[in-house]
Structure formats: C-alpha cells, structure tokens
C-alpha cells in the first residue's frame, strides 16, 4: 500500500513515537522510509560552511546515529535529511518531490484529549498543504 513514507522528526517524545510507527509501516509495506529534521529556519540564508550551522548539523547527525540508527534494525531503504527550513512547508515540499504515499508526524496532544484546536502550526500547515495522506500519531505511553 505504501511505497514511500516521509516522517517529520523533531527528536522529542511525540516525534520518536511517530517514527516508531513509521518504522512498523515501512517494514509491513516493504517501503522506503525518508526521515526529515528541520534545523532552525532562521539559518536558511546562512552559508553552509558557517561554523554555527556546521556545528548544528554535526550535532543533529550525531543524534541520528545514536538515537535513530539503533531503531532501524534490518531496514535498509532509509534516508535522513536535515537542513534549515520551515518544518511544515519543507515536509510538504519533500513529500511532493519524492511522491510520498504518506507523511507521518507526531502529535503532542494525548489521544484522549485531541482536538483540532490543539494541533500546532506545523501540524495544521501540513494537514492543509500535504500532497499525500497525513498520519498524525498521538503520543502514547
């Protein structure tokens, strides 16, 4: 059913739970899994060699290696991207460019308290602009 899954990653609890659900879906569907983490959008105009941006990228890649790679198991068709960007708009653009079948993101609201008024800017922007179905994963204990 799904061949290309994009997950928006923030490294927080809700996002990590959504990533785990994305990994399950990728395994079940033998799908590609693309992971995207938006760095501070204020750095979009910063030169790629700027020491501050280099340091932030290195720290993000270190976190990916230590926190995410151990979760991947036998999955091999995985990509990870991080860059300074508006997280919602960039996730939608990436989903469009890669022709994603599903865009997954974590929700900070608990499922028993979920309502549209509690979805943040990123979630609402993605829901309004995504070129594919969106899975909003509530944080579960």
Oligomeric composition of the shown chains: single chain
Give the ordered list of helices and strands: EHEHEHEHE
Name the CATH architecture: 3-Layer(aba) Sandwich
The helix content, as a percent range, equals 40-55%
Low-confidence stretches: none
Number of strands: 5
CATH-derived topology:
Rossmann fold
How many helices? 4
The rounded Rg comes to: 15 Å
Return the domain count.
1
Estimated share of beta-strand residues: 15-25%
Strand order of the largest sheet: 3-2-1-4-5
Instruction: Give the overall form.
Output: globular
- Give a short account of the largest sheet: 5 strands, parallel
Describe, in plain words, how this protein is organized in 3D.
- By secondary structure, the chain is of the alpha/beta class.
- It has one domain: Rossmann fold.
- Helices cover 43% and strands 25% of the residues.
- It contains four helices and five strands; from the N terminus they run βαβαβαβαβ.
- It has helices at residues 13-29, 51-72, 87-98, 121-129, and strands spanning 4-8, 32-39, 78-84, 102-110, 134-139.
- The longest helix has 22 residues, at 51-72.
- The model has no long low-confidence stretch (mean pLDDT 90).
């Amino acid at each position: 059913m799904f061949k290309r899954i994009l997950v928006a990653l923030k490294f927080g609890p809700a996002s990590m739970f959504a990533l785990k659900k994305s990994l399950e879906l990728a395994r079940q569907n033998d799908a590609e899994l693309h992971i995207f983490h938006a760095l501070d959008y204020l750095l979009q105009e910063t030169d790629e060699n700027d020491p501050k941006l280099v340091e932030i990228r290195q720290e993000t890649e270190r976190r990916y290696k230590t926190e995410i790679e151990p979760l991947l198991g036998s999955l091999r068709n995985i990509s990870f991207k991080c860059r300074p960007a508006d997280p919602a708009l960039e996730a939608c653009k990436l989903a469009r460019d890669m022709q994603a079948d599903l865009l997954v993101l974590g929700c900070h609201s608990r499922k028993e308290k979920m309502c549209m008024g509690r979805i943040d800017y990123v979630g609402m922007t993605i829901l309004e602009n995504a070129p594919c179905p969106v899975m909003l994963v509530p944080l579960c204990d």
